[in-house]
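Hi L.,

As promised, Core-binding (CB) domain-containing protein:
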Amino acid sequence: MKTRSPFLNYIAEYMLVRQYSLRTVDTYLRWIASYIHFHNKRHPASMGDNEVERYLEHLVLKQNVAPRTQATALNSLSFLYKHIIKNELSLNLNFAHSKKQAKLPVVMTPEEVKLLMTH
């Protein structure tokens, strides 16, 4: 089992004291750790909007994450900057967003409709 850094332990304790679910704590810590590793282990206090934008674009353009996955990553980082770093992210983040895949409608052929209607 890999041990967490003191910084990530602090975040976990902060969240648990405030009764965040264990699943939320685990998810947020994984995204925050991924963000830190993406930026060569720089401390988040030395980064900001630009680094968050680059990371979120990387998730979409290189890792092809789903829209909800990208949103979860953003929520994790917003939490980090608002509650831990005490320096909220800008509301004007400019990054590539995941596109929701269009689902093709299920269409039946005329023959399939006839077959269905006869049964």
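The CA atoms of residues 13 and 41 lie 21 Å apart.

Thanks again for sending the construct details.

K.
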